[in-house]
């Protein structure tokens, strides 16, 4: 019975726990959500998607650099990610209109980082 359960869970994707989502899929899903919620144009959609991909690549490089020196301190990680978030927001602000920017800021408050992955957002 245990073997059957394990095979069933594996077939249902249960064996994929802990794997990170594909950054391109996450960026697309987030950008699609924002397009619907904030009314992004197709041009804005592409620019935002590109910004999110670049941010993901920078996060990965930053984490790799922090880990290269051993186990990084939590404070170090938080500081580095806060800087990356600020840089990403700076780029997004140049793409969003004056009407869309407050919508984005509200979205961020309503969707803290630890919940975004659960809902399919960034």
Element order, helices and strands? HHHHHH
Distance between the termini: 39 Å
User: How many helix segments?
Assistant: 6
Shape: elongated
The tally of beta strands, per DSSP, is 0
- Residue runs with pLDDT of under 50 for 5 or more positions: 1-15
Taken as a percent bin, the fraction of beta residues is under 5%
Task: Round the Cα radius of gyration to an integer and report it.
Answer: 17 Å
Helicity level: over 70%
General description of the model:
The chain contains six helices and no strands. The termini are far apart. The protein is mostly helical. Helices cover 76% and strands 0% of the residues. The model is unreliable at 1-15 (pLDDT under 50).
What keyword list fits this structure?
mainly alpha; 6 helices; disordered N terminus; 122 residues; single chain
Q: What order do the helices and strands come in, and which of them pair?
A:
Elements: H1 2-11, H2 23-38, H3 42-68, H4 74-95, H5 100-110, H6 113-119
Quick structural gist:
The protein is an all-alpha fold and 122 residues long.
């Amino acid at each position: 019975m245990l073997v059957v359960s394990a095979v069933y869970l594996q077939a249902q994707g249960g064996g994929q726990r802990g794997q990170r989502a594909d950054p391109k899929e996450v960026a697309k899903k987030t950008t699609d959500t924002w397009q619907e919620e904030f009314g992004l144009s197709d041009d804005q959609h592409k620019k935002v998607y590109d910004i999110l991909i670049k941010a993901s690549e920078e996060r990965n490089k930053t984490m790799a650099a922090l880990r290269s020196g051993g186990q990084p301190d939590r404070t170090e990680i938080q500081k580095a990610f806060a800087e990356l978030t600020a840089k990403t927001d700076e780029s997004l602000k140049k793409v969003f209109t004056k009407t869309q920017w407050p919508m984005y800021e509200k979205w961020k408050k309503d969707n803290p980082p630890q919940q975004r992955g659960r809902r399919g957002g960034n």
